[in-house]
């Protein structure tokens, strides 16, 4: 087994970089969706939701940077074109969403997809003894589960 300069198996690091690039592409689509609903939301809940969506897209933007930097730390190259993001993402596209419930449902669907990817990365990073990636995924998962719970509560729906 060949180790890289941070003490991780080179082969496992490459595999994790690939997985993280998939997460990066999906986060970029999620981020773009949040920007769109932030800009286009209408109705009586505009003021509350406009602020909440800005909070969420600011957080997503920070996570995008963290993911890209982790890919670099593992020796990979982060995806960085819209073409790459489209080809590698499964998060639904939210186009011209103006209604509050549609926007919240898009967030829940998107986070649910991100959580599936993050849990797979969590397992792979655990197997690779990659505490840096493991810790990042644990933090993301904890935050996003709470956001899903809150959004489902807002929709008056069960988890």
TrEMBL record:
CDD domains: DPS. Pfam families: Ferritin. It comes from the Bacteria. The keyword Lipid metabolism does not apply. Keywords: DNA-binding. Belongs to the Dps family. This is Starvation-inducible DNA-binding protein. It comes from Arenibacter algicola.
